[in-house]
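User: Okay, second chain of the day. Same drill as before: sequence in, structure tokens out.
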Amino acid sequence: MRSKRAGPLCVEDEVMAGMFEITVLALVLTAARTICNATEMVMQEPPGSTTGTAKPNPFKVFWTNHTKVWTAKSTDMFHYTCEREVLSNMNDTGLQITTYFDVKNSFTLNWTFTENDSITCTLSSNVKLRRQIIYENGTCAVLKLEVWSRNDSGSQENTYVLGQTNYKLVLDDKKKGNVPADCTQQYRRARGKRDTYKVYRDKCKNIEKKSQ
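Assistant: Same drill. Structure tokens below.
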């Protein structure tokens, strides 16, 4: 997949986190110290993908209808709880999302609208992220999260290969703590036999008051 050129993609450093294992979050925290410029990239074309559609990117529609979502469950083993994502900015080419976790910790990522109804983010010169919406019903959604790594061993330069795939179930801010049955079913179907971890807990209900 070849993405369109975009402006600078960077991670703003407002990170107050401890030491985590080598996960996507660790990559984000590492990239938070650098400014990453978007480049054209070649990815393996996902099976059954289509391009050239004129309909708006699903994430643009999603974040037009939501301002904050909470992660209920994820197949990625989080080392923290109470993750919520807040839309910071959006235009015709992409959006900016700030992720908060625990009480006051946060990081910000810039995402570009790309083909195959996805958004992509450059973490570093060697790592890119891609997201797709698997299911959405207006109050909750199931997201597919992919980590792509540079593979320069092949004949084609600037090629990225899929390294990791995770899924997570998110809830609209007004529905936090209450997971609709249809989203639970779709999340189970998407994750298959992958382990799942509970990210939203009862203590998250009032956690934002503690940060004020």
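The chain has four helices and twelve strands.

User: Thanks, on to the next one.
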